Amino acid sequence: MRKIEISRADLRADVEAGPAPILQWIDIATLVVDDSYQRDLKRANWTAIRRIASSFRWSMFSPVFVAPVEGGSYAIIDGQHRTHAAAMCGFSQVPCQIVQMTRTEQAAAFAAVNGRVTQVTVWQLFKAALAAGEGWAVTAQEIAKEGGCRILTYAKAATEKKPGEIYGIKGFVAVVEQRPRQHVVAALRMLKSANGYGDNQDAWDAWCLFPLLMALTERPAALANPGFQKALEGFDFWHLAERDHQERREKRRQGISHPPKSETLRAGVLDWIDKAFPQRVGAPPVLGKAAIMERVGAMKVG
Predict the structure, then answer these.
(1) Is residue 12 a part of any domain in this protein?
(2) CA dist 224 to 21, 34, 117, Å?
(3) Cα distance between residue 251 and residue 265, in whole Å
(4) Does 282 reside within a domain?
(5) Total Cβ atoms within 10 A of residue 148
(6) Which of 146, 177, 210, 257 is deepest in the core (most CB within 10 A)?
(7) What residues make up the domain containing 187?
(8) Are residues 70 and 127 in the same domain?
């Protein structure tokens, strides 16, 4: 746990903070929305409201920011979505932070609260999801660990990154959601053990790692072949990437659309795998003489 600590140099003595807020439970029936500065509720907003309502918990509900207005009502500055969700769940009151403001100050406060929010990184969200025991985050972490890798919950300088460290959390979670667990683990282990991949941090950058993982997990039979690691070590992925870059640049010069890099690189790796480890179709079973005569007889009857 960290305490709130501010350096002496950062202490401010010239702050004019205005009226202090009051915390109070307020009837939802007395809360109003000023459309002159508040956002309209469109389809996406209602989707968000229903999502909040579907997993409503007071432990995840921050006080609604409001200001007193004429007629004994309170204008919502921040919290319109969660107030609608609370009403949807049948609650008649919500906790509110009340601050005395003019209408101009209300609009300015709305802009400040919604426009100057500190951006939460995907690493911070993943770290919080792990702490909360959310299934998707726990599963992703376990799979990375089984594969001899680990998901980082913070950024590092490029010179400090190491092979096996996964920073592209969204991309990795997408792979985990689309591919069987054992195939992702096998692909990670393969990349960790293969020369040119397990000793090369560049191979673990998102643009490189995820097309490789998607392709390897799409060909589990080839991946399980005893000769696959040696073949992978001889495969020039970087030449594929450079060729793709040249083709992409030429298409762009001609004004022609081109598939995403993740798709073209994945397709290139799959093409290499299929040539190096072709899927052999089994020969049809050999029929005995009696079976052959039986088929011929059936054809004649037909």
Answers:
(1) no
(2) 64, 62, 48
(3) 16
(4) no
(5) 15
(6) 210
(7) 122-276
(8) no
